[in-house]
Amino acid sequence: MKDTMKHILPLILLILISLPVLAKDWTEYYFQFEIQDKSELEFLTDIISIAKVQGNVVWAFANDEEWQAFQQLNYHPQLLQKPGYGIEQPMRDVGDSFRDWYTYPTYDAYVAQMYAFASNYPNLCQIYDIGTTINGRKILFAKISDNVSLHEAEPEVQYSAAIHGDETCGYMTMLHLIDYLLSNYSTNPRIQNLINNLEIWINPLANPDGTYYGGNNSVSGARRYNANGYDLNRSFPDHWGTPSAPTQPETTIFTNFANTHHFVLSANFHGGAEVVNYPWDGTYTPHIDENWFIDLSADYVNTARQVYSGYMTSLYSTGYTNGADWYVIHGGRQDYFTYFHHCREVTIELTNTYITPAAQLENYWNYNYNSLLGYLENALYGLQGTVKDVYGNPLTATITVLGLDTVYSTAITDPACGDYIRMLLPGTYNVQISVNGYEPQTFNNIVITEGQKTTLNAVFGVIPPSQTLQLNAGWNLISFNIQPNNLNIESILSPVMGNVIQIKNLKESFHPGMDSYYNTITNLDITCGYWIKMNSSTSLYLEGTPIDPPTHSINLKTGWNLVPYYPENILSVISALQSITSYLQEVKYFNQVYISESSNNSLTQMEPGKGYWIRVLQDCNLIYPAAKN
To answer: What is the mean pLDDT of the chain?
Structure first.
């Protein structure tokens, strides 16, 4: 069979390429057939849309082009009744109670219900219309959070359903979940914990054109594919292979939306089987976090089985499977989110039926709602924190568990807030946090405990030495205790130049309004104090090299000297000038005066940023104290 397929493949590809990209009117084929070996699925997955595999029996869907290509192979398919054309389901319209969970909403009722959530709970819920389908229907998300209008440093989690339009159990379960979260927030501590600490995004209907293919008033006639006749869950970018379906407008809507968010945990809901399917779908190579995914999947299944012990047993006794071990697909959203967005997404097949009978919807809600809450709670645990610079600005960082992570499994920060989460099994780990332009930081022996959050924050960079001078309108006496990186006086004063009238020391002057000939100050001399006259009050911020007072002596001449003050803290005049006690006569700062041996001094301390007049008996060297006192 494999050799036969190798010879037929070029012909099939030629047929697919020669057919129109968009099929306006197309036939849906639902069929089953048998394979001799599971390896055949690796070839077939790029020809048809495989929906379920059990033993050697395969259930699949196809459009006209795919069906024509499949018929070139040596299989004997049995056409089946299309899932969307079964018993007509009870429908509710706009104005009917949306809490009637035994009916399906019309399309208009669905849209009205979504916006009603936001109007009924405006402090908790907002509705986002992220794009319009081929046939003009809305793709809607409900955002649920305690500060719903803000983007906070909280994990973003996502649920999405019905990417296959005829798999409707997830559609209704997500509507029920939105209502449950909002209506129980005020009384249920578990719900409060979720909404207060997460940003929850729920998209009940990813493929409305498929679900309402038969018209807006009924889910009868629902189809798996979109209006163009392609499987949306085979049309996402794929690291492991070429997507089986061409990129669709809906695909672009979802990928654009994903690019503007930072989802860390996600699930998409399907029907036609009962199983939790974890990555990867496109390769047999295990995900680095295979054991974590197994633990996650087992928790979901086992929680649901507390309600109904026979749930999710039809395919696997465990109730979960690795995706590729079940059957390989290319272009699935699970691998897309997990690989390209460093998210963790699984596919949850809720029911063996496609269009779930409305009378059974409440049963599946009861089986799953505790599992749905528990799944979201995983985003409250693990390793979490923020990565910022020394000024508190968020940084784009990569968080790597040393000895475990590869390029796709690392955690990355949300560039908007600098927050991250790395979900891990309990254990002790060494973690490296990397930011472009900085040396990586390594944190050893980080302990992860089951059901708890371990916080690890990182700060990158060093605050450069700086000085802020507070300048009043009129004359100011100033000095510098750092050496600016650029000593040019115009560069130093550039932030406040429009406010400067004049700056001068004992010998030189600079006046922005005068010709350069008269401006004798070119560069700053840190050994001097300065007069500076301002039009109005402002502040001047400077960065540079710190001045070490003991190594920067100041030469004083007999008589008056206008000197800087180097220490970073306030000192008494006696402490600051102890090195010249024998020669000191007087110190002035405007009308404040210190006179040696006087007991009635108005100037008693010296402050950073100020310049002082000092009178001495003879030439001497002033050396300020070494450190802060």
So the answer is: 94
